[in-house]
Predict the 3D structure of the following.
Amino acid sequence: MRMSAPFLLKKLLICCNIHLMKVLLIEDDKVLGESIEDYFRLNGIDTLWIYDERKLPNIIKVYEFDVIILDLMLNFTRGEDLITFLRDNRVNTPILILTAKTEFTSKEECFLRGADDYLTKPFEPKELLLRVRALSKRVQRETVFTIGDITINIDAKIILKNNREIKISKTAWDLLTLLIKRKGEIVSCDTILNYVWGGKAVGDEVVRTYIKELRKILPYNCIKTYKGRGYKLEGELRD
């Protein structure tokens, strides 16, 4: 069986434990949705495309994304209401609106509800790609945090304790990044597996191994286990 180039790229990155940018595309136009999905994957972006927006509540419980692309004119829900839903549910992922609506009032409403960018149809695929990458980099710059006497720079992959650098594995970095993004929330093992291992079935014992690695360098009781539910990063996190 011959595998596609995007599939082989994703498989290679997962095997090498390299974090691939992940985008959620919510678009009910199946031709356009498939076109964007294929274009992004050819450019190294892992894309989950849904054309039924009613799946969104379940998806955000399991997956973590770098950028969300949202159409406004969907089948069952106004896209504007989905922006509010995401922000009310503490999803801080950058949202890019992709729509045929060109009126200023539409743009104003979306930005006031919490959108980060707005692109009207028709559009150049390259422009959409550039905007998505820019939004992702904007979030990555906000990556210096302090927990107790530990300073964490996720973008530079540096942990300092009393001005001395502490080394951890690449996998532990990805796990720490996820826990910081979801700070104060219980992060399920399914979410961890999807974010850190790309959905690869590695087993709960492997997850526990990397949780132990983080616990060795973070303040005592900073990561709590919720049996059967997942893990939560607790304590004061300052940026």
In short: The chain has two domains: 5-140, 144-238. The two ends are 48 Å apart (CA to CA). Residues 222 and 234 are 5 Å apart (CA to CA).
